[in-house]
Amino acid sequence: MAGSRTLTALVGLAVSLAITVALWWYFDTLLVFLFLPFVPILFRGFGGDDSPVAQECPHCGFQSTVEAYDYCPRDGSRLEPK
After folding, report:
1. Model confidence over 4-54: pLDDT tens digits?
2. Spatial distance between the Cα atoms of 49 and 3, rounded to a whole number of angstroms
3. Rounded CA separation 28/76 (Å)
4. What is the per-residue DSSP string for 15-71?
5. pTM beyond cutoff 0.70
6. Which letter does DSSP use for residue 14 in this model?
7. What distance lies between CA 17 and its chain's CA centroid?
8. Which secondary structure element, helix H or strand E, spans residue 33, and what is its range?
């Protein structure tokens, strides 16, 4: 069975093709296909997983996303990736 990422990619492809065909039909020109490759550049800032990796103390539960913290300030144990 296909995974959720595969299904998301297939749905995105189908929607993209449907929008392209609709624009082609509406504007009645093939210039739509010249604009199509630039669409991902327009949405580059949205989504993605650019968030810092959280670290957590295995003993007390202290969490930090700052890379400067290697050890827990409460009990001194080494932080582990969450």
Report:
1. 888 888 888 888 888 888 888 888 877 777 666 666 666 666 655 556 778
2. 19
3. 67
4. HHHHHHHHHHHHHTSTTHHHHGGGHHHHTTTSSS--PPPPEE-TTT--EE--TT--B
5. no
6. H
7. 21
8. helix 32-35
